[in-house]
């Protein structure tokens, strides 16, 4: 015998978000809303790609400088070690 849960009384069958979306489509029409969403999505993705690309470029540029000074330090240590012999 399994557990039987009581049925929940649903007063509405359409979720709240789709009611407001349907109202937006009814107010402006399907084509303008679709065009707005496509343009908004394109701009959002473009801005995110631009910001992330700039961030990664800045991190890469900073790491090159740090790597250079690390190699200089290692080479200096090797030269000092070989001179003492």
From TrEMBL:
PANTHER family: MEMBRANE CHANNEL PROTEIN, PUTATIVE (AFU_ORTHOLOGUE AFUA_6G11300)-RELATED, NONSELECTIVE CATION CHANNEL PROTEIN. Transmembrane segments: none annotated. It comes from Tuber melanosporum (strain Mel28). It holds the Pfam family YVC1_C. Residues 29-85 form the Calcium channel YVC1-like C-terminal transmembrane domain. It comes from the Eukaryota. This is (Perigord truffle) hypothetical protein.
């Amino acid at each position: 015998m399994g557990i039987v849960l009581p049925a929940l009384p649903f007063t509405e069958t359409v979720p709240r978000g789709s009611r407001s979306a349907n109202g937006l489509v009814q107010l402006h029409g399907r084509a303008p809303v679709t065009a707005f969403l496509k343009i908004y999505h394109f701009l959002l993705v473009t801005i995110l790609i631009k910001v992330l690309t700039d961030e990664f470029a800045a991190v890469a540029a900073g790491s090159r400088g740090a790597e250079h000074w690390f190699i200089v330090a290692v080479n200096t240590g090797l030269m000092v070690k070989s001179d003492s012999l």
